[in-house]
Amino acid sequence: MFNNLGDRFKDIFKKVSGQGKLTENNMKDALREVRLALLEADVNYSVAKNFVAKIREKALGEQVISGVNPTQQFIKIVNDELVEVLGGSNVSIAKADKNPTIVMLSGLQGAGKTTFSGKLAKHLKSKGEKPFLIGADVYRPAAKKQLKVLGEQVKVPVFTIDESTDAVEIVKQGIEASKNEHATYVIIDTAGRLHIDEQLMNELQDIKDSFNPNEILLVVDGMTGQDAVNVAKEFNEQLDITGVVLTKLDGDTRGGAALSVKEVAGKPIKFISEGEKLDDIAPFHPDRLASRILGMGDVVSLVEKAQEAIDEKEAKKMEEKFRKNQFDFEDFLKQFKMIRKMGSIAGIMKMIPGVDTSMIDMGMAEKEMKKVEAIIFSMTVQERRDPKLLKNGSRKMRIAKGSGVQVNDVNKLIKQFEQMKQMMKMFNSGGIPGLGGGFMK
Ligand code: GDP
């Protein structure tokens, strides 16, 4: 998503570069191209028009800042405007004063509502909450079953009444049942239709009136572009939703929906979903998406991912080992696993600004990692715990054979490992100021 728009912006920035100062005249072409780029990305017409008007106003009104060139200033203005149009800042999911917080999900059939119920449950669980799912999609035949399967996968209780088509009754009993489980969040999967119709809206309105949800999220299919935006507008007018979930942003969507929803429908995007897997959910951060569009990478979400992947307790233990210089190959292997949890190398690299992933052979990087892993796997536990044993040539030969590499590769890994330990020793002895401890955090 957004690759094209990002490329277009890069081209526009290139054309602006070299200008001494931003003027009405030299901005004209750039602004026209910004507008075209937005329209090509399927951004709503009046959103695109406003966007350009605001950039123009800011660019011409801006004082020249010393130490910054006009292109950089222009990029900053575009970035800020993108953040603005995407909603400004992250609006997190509501949390009621009293448990459980009730989250009602709505949306058209196929938007990804049921899948999102499972994703949200998993997400909330990872934040230490106790979610509880209620299957009240009484319209799509397989929806209740699908929710039960998802519930099992994420180990979250699911309540539904198979034979009932009375959504309000299901939710009523479900909320009661959630109290026995001491749930902190109740997520209600409601029915969708292929199109917005009166019956659907009445049903949703009934649930809303009966239970007064803390959060009414509308799930829309990002691939449907401006249709998604119109659906959001209409749902909001009829149901006064609290936020939008934009799904399927992994597909080849041009991204226009994300850029138009807030302004057209008036409600913030709270989550985006970029895949069918249960982990493919992320709270929506306008600033991060803006920097992703402009190709500046997304370090913040990289760090967040790392934080999620790294087990705090394990990290503390590892740090202690570093401090005492007891770090061995078993720990090394554990570190590898943590990195793996963050996703593929390619995925991680893409998020780092300034890294041109087309220049890196990702296949090679993955292969190198696998090779190192294979070598360590071929060591005995004793060898892993006491790397000194590896000075022995026949041991190295055995390991090389076992992992299908050259002895040279084993030597290289041992050498790198020793260098790393040396470095840690230096940090810990205060050899390099400001780097003592904390390495793993
Ligand atoms: P519902 O009718 O709104 O409950 O829709 P479902 O949750 O059953 O989803 C419809 C289809 O979209 C399913 O095949 C999902 O696997 C798929 N889907 C849901 N979210 C995403 C997403 O973010 N990306 C992709 N590629 N597919 C998704």
UniProtKB/TrEMBL annotation:
<dbReference type="GO" id="GO:0048500">
    <property type="term" value="C:signal recognition particle"/>
</dbReference>
<dbReference type="InterPro" id="IPR000897">
    <property type="entry name" value="SRP54_GTPase_dom"/>
</dbReference>
<feature type="binding site">
    <location>
        <begin position="247"/>
        <end position="250"/>
    </location>
    <ligand>
        <name>GTP</name>
    </ligand>
</feature>
<dbReference type="InterPro" id="IPR013822">
    <property type="entry name" value="Signal_recog_particl_SRP54_hlx"/>
</dbReference>
<dbReference type="GO" id="GO:0005525">
    <property type="term" value="F:GTP binding"/>
</dbReference>
<feature type="binding site">
    <location>
        <begin position="107"/>
        <end position="114"/>
    </location>
    <ligand>
        <name>GTP</name>
    </ligand>
</feature>
<dbReference type="InterPro" id="IPR004125">
    <property type="entry name" value="Signal_recog_particle_SRP54_M"/>
</dbReference>
<keyword id="KW-0342">GTP-binding</keyword>
<dbReference type="GO" id="GO:0008312">
    <property type="term" value="F:7S RNA binding"/>
</dbReference>
<feature type="binding site">
    <location>
        <begin position="189"/>
        <end position="193"/>
    </location>
    <ligand>
        <name>GTP</name>
    </ligand>
</feature>
<keyword id="KW-0963">Cytoplasm</keyword>
<comment type="subunit">
    <text>Part of the signal recognition particle protein translocation system, which is composed of SRP and FtsY.</text>
</comment>
<comment type="function">
    <text>Involved in targeting and insertion of nascent membrane proteins into the cytoplasmic membrane. Binds to the hydrophobic signal sequence of the ribosome-nascent chain (RNC) as it emerges from the ribosomes. The SRP-RNC complex is then targeted to the cytoplasmic membrane where it interacts with the SRP receptor FtsY.</text>
</comment>
<dbReference type="InterPro" id="IPR004780">
    <property type="entry name" value="SRP"/>
</dbReference>
<feature type="domain" description="SRP54-type proteins GTP-binding">
    <location>
        <begin position="268"/>
        <end position="281"/>
    </location>
</feature>
<dbReference type="Pfam" id="PF02978">
    <property type="entry name" value="SRP_SPB"/>
</dbReference>
<dbReference type="Pfam" id="PF00448">
    <property type="entry name" value="SRP54"/>
</dbReference>
<dbReference type="GO" id="GO:0006614">
    <property type="term" value="P:SRP-dependent cotranslational protein targeting to membrane"/>
</dbReference>
<dbReference type="InterPro" id="IPR036891">
    <property type="entry name" value="Signal_recog_part_SRP54_M_sf"/>
</dbReference>
<dbReference type="GO" id="GO:0003924">
    <property type="term" value="F:GTPase activity"/>
</dbReference>
<protein>
    <recommendedName>
        <fullName>Signal recognition particle protein</fullName>
        <ecNumber>3.6.5.4</ecNumber>
    </recommendedName>
</protein>
<dbReference type="InterPro" id="IPR042101">
    <property type="entry name" value="SRP54_N_sf"/>
</dbReference>
<comment type="similarity">
    <text>Belongs to the GTP-binding SRP family. SRP54 subfamily.</text>
</comment>
<dbReference type="InterPro" id="IPR003593">
    <property type="entry name" value="AAA+_ATPase"/>
</dbReference>
<keyword id="KW-0687">Ribonucleoprotein</keyword>
<dbReference type="InterPro" id="IPR022941">
    <property type="entry name" value="SRP54"/>
</dbReference>
<dbReference type="Pfam" id="PF02881">
    <property type="entry name" value="SRP54_N"/>
</dbReference>
<keyword id="KW-0547">Nucleotide-binding</keyword>
<keyword id="KW-0694">RNA-binding</keyword>
<dbReference type="InterPro" id="IPR027417">
    <property type="entry name" value="P-loop_NTPase"/>
</dbReference>
<keyword id="KW-0378">Hydrolase</keyword>
<keyword id="KW-0733">Signal recognition particle</keyword>
